[in-house]
Amino acid sequence: MIDELLATIAAFHRGRTPSPEFEMVIEVLDALDDVAAPSEIGPGRPLEAIRHLDAVESTGTDPAVAAILDEFLRIGPELPWRQTTGYLDVLSAEYLANYGYVRQVGPRPSTIEHPSVRVGLGLWGPGLHYPLHAHPAEELYHVLAGEPWFGTEDGTWTQARPGDAVHNPPWRRHAQRFGPEPTVLLYCWTGDVVSDAVLLGKPEAAAAPARK
Ligand SMILES: [Fe+2]
């Protein structure tokens, strides 16, 4: 069921200029070429957040972004949605009711097991604040929908739009704030992909971004 979704993700990365856009993408593409999707996908958690799929809009300006989104929106409700286990007792009920992700490739529990690459899609409802966090994996985000702000530990916030890339080296401390529309992010991890992200400090500690 996810073959087509993985194909749109690989095509997206191959179509970026320059390709590969970041060196880590070489390993990601190798993994996407190698993996075989299972014929059946086990159930995930029935998350409240997937209601936001209905309001996700594709800007339509980038055909490669639109191709991923179209397929994601088509099969999204049937995918195994997850949340980071370590966040469940820490983040607010509001946050947990409005965020989730599907992990197509990666260590268990992923749809397709892989030891050294994670590939997935995350969904966040309007107005959420993802507090400062870090992880040992190298990370590459691409915005597919929405206009989220990406923050660093020094309080700098940068707004990103569909098609924009955000790269985090291992252990960089980062945060996100999400705009008035639902946000969809494509993410890739390489390196230590077994360890989850950890939250840093109190969730409310990071400053708000300056308004446009
Ligand atoms: Fe991250």
List keywords for this structure.
212 residues; five-stranded antiparallel sheet; globular; 4 helices; Jelly Rolls; six-stranded mixed sheet; 19% helix
Topology at a glance:
Layout: H1 3-15, H2 24-34, H3 63-75, H4 93-96, E1 99-106, E2 112-113, E3 117-124, E4 129-134, E5 138-145, E6 149-152, E7 157-159, E8 165-168, E9 174-177, E10 183-190, E11 198-199
Parallel strand pairs: 1-2
Antiparallel strand pairs: 1-3, 3-10, 4-9, 4-11, 5-8, 5-10, 6-7, 6-9
Helix pairs in contact: 1-2, 1-3
The site of fe (ii) ion has 5 residues, from loops.
Compose a concise summary of this entry.
With 212 residues, the protein is α+β, with helices and mostly antiparallel strands.
Instruction: Quickly give the structural class.
Output: alpha+beta
The helix content, as a percent range, equals 10-25%
Which descriptor suits the 3D outline? globular
**Between the first and last Cα atoms, what is the distance in angstroms?**
41 Å
CATH classification, class level: Mainly Beta
Protein described:
- By secondary structure, the chain is α+β, with helices and mostly antiparallel strands.
- The chain has one domain (3-199): Jelly Rolls (Sandwich).
- 19% of the residues lie in helices and 27% in strands.
- The chain is built from 4 helices and 11 strands; from the N terminus they run ααααβββββββββββ.
- Strands 2-1-3-10-5-8 form a 6-stranded mixed beta sheet. A 5-stranded antiparallel beta sheet has the order 7-6-9-4-11, with no helix packed on it.
- The chain starts with a helix and ends in a 13-residue tail after the last strand.
- The protein binds fe (ii) ion (FE2).
- The site of fe (ii) ion (FE2) has 5 residues, from loops.
- Residues 135, 139, 168, 174, 197 line the site of fe (ii) ion.
